[in-house]
Structures are given as C-alpha cells and as structure tokens.
Amino acid sequence: MRVRLREIVEGGLDIVDQAAPKDLDLKEEFINLEKPIIVKGHLERVSDFVLAKLTVTYTLDTVCARCLDPIDGDVSFDFEADLPFKMGDKHVDLGARVREEILTGYVPRVLCKEDCQGICQGCGVYLNTEKCECNNKKKEVANF
Length: 144
Ligand SMILES: [Zn+2]
Ligand SMILES: [Zn+2]
Prior knowledge:
The chain is mainly beta. It has one helix at residues 95-105; strands at residues 2-4, 13-19, 37-46, 49-59, 62-63, 70-71, 74-84, 91-93. The chain has a four-stranded antiparallel β-sheet, covered by helices on one side. Strands 1-8 form a two-stranded antiparallel ribbon. Strands 5-6 form a two-stranded antiparallel sheet. β5 (62-63) and β6 form a beta hairpin. The two termini are 37 Å apart. The mean pLDDT is 90. One zinc ion (ZN) binds next to loops.
C-alpha cells in the first residue's frame, strides 16, 4: 500500500487500493484471510507529512459472541492519519497504519444482530428461532 509522493499533486490524490491481509501481516482469527482489505480515500501533502483520510473495509470471519452463528460480513471504518516523510523519500506506506487501525478498532464481541437472544443456558436451544424447552427463568441469555 505504497503511494508515490510525486503523485500526490496539489489538491490531493484520491486513492483506491487493496491488499491481501497477509501482505499487511494480518493473520488474526477474526479476519477473513481470503478477502482483500480495501482502502479508499484522499491524500494531501502538508509540508513534511501526508494527511490521509481513509475508509478501510475488511471482511470478518468470526462467530456471534452470544449464539456462535458464523459472521462473515464486511466491516468499514474511517480514520485520519498523518504519515510523515523525509527529504528524499519517494513513497509513503499506508499499510502499517491500516494494520494498526484494524487491530485497535476491532471489538472482540461481535453479535450476529443487536438483539441476538443467544443460546439458552439451560437447554441449549437456539433462542433466535426456537422456544426454550426448559423454562430457564424466562429468557436467560448468556451474559455478555
Ligand atoms: Zn447471535
Ligand atoms: Zn432452555
């Protein structure tokens, strides 16, 4: 995810780039390693740094924290970063910042939907579509 400094002209440069997770050294379990990480945004040169306003999209590969259903949706988020460069540099590299933002922004308790009912602690029934058979104190949801 390197961008040539001289391509960042006055008025800035719009970019769309993508990389495989492994190319950004991302091997985390919650990331779908088969799908690319996509970066879109705008870069502007400001004296000795590049101001980057980026939208990052990657694909999850995890399970719901309550019901353990697989989750493979896309996650998108925006961030801004100052990427410093030195005299003589030909490129700025976005990869390290994108990696960092993905890792620090990830919430490890993802739910398949906001009101997921989870699995009954008593009888193990999947409460999103089935009724509890054990009458386990009404709807007792795993406490996340
Ligand atoms: Zn769920
Ligand atoms: Zn039950």
